[in-house]
Design goal:
Number of helices: 10
Strand content: under 5%
Number of strands: 2
Shape: globular
Length: about 200
């Protein structure tokens, strides 16, 4: 069904989950979450098959990626308003300096780390699944990495990009180098993935 008109499917999915702007307040249903997204209450935990994201990504990768990036960008903006403490990180230097929104919890959202909502985490997991499948087939993901770098400044996307970079180390030393060189992200990676842990890579 998504293959027939993937652009329309993307717009409908976003419309169902991103309401018109409400007054500044926590979400009434769950005060542990930012307001601004209508969540699926059937989600008990994040997984890449939950929600419509994987189906759209498989039907049309471009529209599926736009869906995930738009959803994550919106959630990140609400997160910055809701969360306490520093909610941005500067990476790169000089003309290449960039400001990315969020904190260490949002950086690890693709792993389903609380308190990122399972709906958003599932969208990130679906995108990770599709990109890893491409790598397993021997296909390049450089165009998809470039798309995310161009269209998002969410640390949730940054975390996913670095995870992909661990499968393609050349990316860590080229387009993803600003993340690798960040002391703050190095610390987050070391706390989350000890040298003997699953990542196989410590910055």
């Amino acid at each position: 069904q998504y293959a027939a008109d993937p652009a329309l499917a993307r717009e409908i999915i976003l419309a169902l989950h991103i309401p018109e702007r409400e007054p500044e307040r926590y979400h009434e249903r769950d005060r542990s979450q930012p307001e601004g997204i209508v969540f699926d209450d059937s989600f008990e935990g994040p997984f890449y098959t939950r929600g419509p994201h994987l189906q759209l990504l498989q039907a049309n990768l471009g529209e599926g990626m736009q869906l995930v990036v738009d959803l994550v960008n919106h959630y990140t903006d609400r997160w910055v308003e809701w969360a306490r403490g520093q909610q941005q990180l500067t990476v790169g230097e000089g003309a290449d300096e960039q400001v990315w929104k969020g904190d260490a919890r949002l950086y690890l959202a693709y792993r389903g780390v609380h308190p990122c909502h399972p709906y958003v985490a599932s969208a990130l997991m679906a995108l990770e699944k599709v990109l890893l499948d491409r790598l397993d087939r021997g296909d390049s993901v450089e165009a998809q990495v470039a798309f995310m770098l161009k269209n998002s400044r969410s640390l949730a996307i940054a975390g996913l990009l670095v995870a992909i970079g661990k499968r393609v180390p050349a990316l860590l030393f080229t387009s993803l180098w600003p993340f690798v060189a960040s002391p703050e992200l190095q610390a987050t990676e070391r706390r989350s993935f000890p040298a003997s842990g699953e990542s196989g890579l410590n910055f």
